[in-house]
Design goal:
CATH superfamily of the largest domain: Type I PLP-dependent aspartate aminotransferase-like (Major domain)
Number of helices: 15
Number of domains: 2
Structural class: alpha/beta
CATH class of the largest domain: Alpha Beta
Oligomer: single chain
Strand order of the largest sheet: 4-10-9-8-7-5-6
CATH topology of the largest domain: Aspartate Aminotransferase, domain 2
CATH architecture of the largest domain: 3-Layer(aba) Sandwich
Number of strands: 15
Radius of gyration: 21 Å
Helix content: 40-55%
């Protein structure tokens, strides 16, 4: 039996021990964290919608109408009128024929992959794909193959050698730790040539990219029967949950076979109503996406000359590569003493030797917030090299 105390001590010695911090009050540019107010660069609330009054009001109204819990799986009695409306709204928002709601993105990816492929089939994943895609591929029983990050040419070579009856390619649209985007048009074209499905995880692009925030596939001009979109609703949308969107017949099959859908209690109706309200705001308030682009440009200019480099990213995710696990955690702690919360991300979440500060931007950040972060990082750099 494993000695958990010893194992935890070993994680701590490697700078890999994770901790939780208690947050009080709503999400926003500032968070109340363990009796301290911290300027937050750690949230995925990219558009600043998590505490939007219209979304809160929609949830409150729905609570009075539906109560709190859905009380059953969607295939029993848990599929509410609010959830039905949300699925129509999600399909229209993404420009897809149909949508199916899931409890969260992790469960969506596990369920969809397992519904589409199994023993004797093949799943091909981008090397930097999210853990839920990799776990879904492993749990499906299909053969798992990996192609180099964002390399459509190598993907074509893998598929050309594959003789499986069913083939599924999976990739993030925006990679959560690097902030770069997948070449979706190229990936979709390769999959079409080799009769493979393409599952795109747009957790970090939905709401932020594309016309009216309709996501990475819309930004790339990709819509095809063999392409499926997975979107999460707890990031730019500011609520919670996830969905799959795509061709109606394919989604009907997934509803019959995705175990994480079939055997999970449905999300609360009030959450569905809040999400529908959020989609309306995302479409009409273009200034939030414009602001994110301005902030990313401002940050990259402000951090020029540091001993650590930002990865190339045009998204709300701006990773500052530090390298050493302990240094990344020290820098994060150093920033916290100055009232800033910037998380250190270490292996196995990112490859060994690429520990980083993951700076997440929100449309509600101000110019002075960016300046405050940049000045604190410069002071930390001076101390590090003193």
């Amino acid at each position: 039996m494993m000695d958990t105390h010893e194992a935890l001590a070993e994680l701590a010695s490697q700078g890999l021990l994770r901790t939780r911090r208690v947050v009080a009050g709503p999400q926003g540019p500032y968070l109340e964290v363990e009796d301290s107010q911290l300027l937050s660069f750690c949230s995925n609330d990219y558009l600043g919608l998590a505490n939007h009054p219209e979304i809160v009001a929609a949830a409150t109204t729905a609570l009075h109408k539906y109560g709190m819990g859905a009380a059953a799986s969607p295939l029993i009695s848990g599929h509410s009128a609010a959830q039905e409306q949300l699925e129509h709204d999600l399909a229209a928002f993404c420009g897809q024929p149909a949508a199916l709601s899931f409890s969260n993105g992790y469960m969506a990816n596990l369920g969809v992959i397992g519904a589409l492929v199994g023993v004797g089939d093949t799943v091909v994943v981008d090397r930097l794909s999210h853990a839920s895609l990799i776990d879904g591929a492993r749990l499906s029983g299909a053969s798992l193959k990996v192609f180099p990050h964002n390399d459509a040419a190598r993907l074509e070579q893998v598929l050309a050698r594959c003789s499986s009856p069913r083939k599924l390619v999976v990739s993030d649209a925006v990679f959560s730790m690097d902030g770069d985007a997948a070449p979706l048009a190229n990936l979709a074209a390769v999959c079409a040539r080799h009769d493979a499905w393409l599952l795109v995880d747009d957790a970090h692009g939905l709401g932020v990219l594309g016309p009216q925030g309709r996501g990475s596939l819309a930004a790339a001009g990709v819509q095809a029967p063999h392409v499926l979109l997975m979107g999460t609703l707890g990031k730019a949308a500011g609520v919670a949950g996830a969905f799959i969107a795509g061709e109606s017949g394919l989604l009907a099959w997934i509803m019959q076979r995705a175990r994480t859908y079939m055997f999970s209690t449905a999300n609360p109706p009030a959450l569905a109503a809040a999400t529908s309200a959020s989609l309306s705001i995302i479409v009409r308030e273009e200034w939030r996406r414009q602001r994110l682009r301005q902030l990313a440009t401002q940050l990259r200019t402000a951090l020029t000359g540091l001993p650590w480099s930002l990865l190339p990213s045009d998204t709300a995710i701006q990773p500052l590569i530090v390298g050493d696990n302990h240094l990344a955690r020290r820098l994060s702690q150093r920033l916290r003493t100055e009232g800033l919360w910037v998380p250190a991300i270490c292996p196995p979440t990112v490859p060994k030797g690429t520990a980083r500060l993951r700076i997440s931007l929100s449309a509600l950040h101000t110019d002075s917030h960016i300046s405050q972060l940049a000045e604190a990082l410069r002071r930390a750099a001076q101390e590090h090299h003193a």
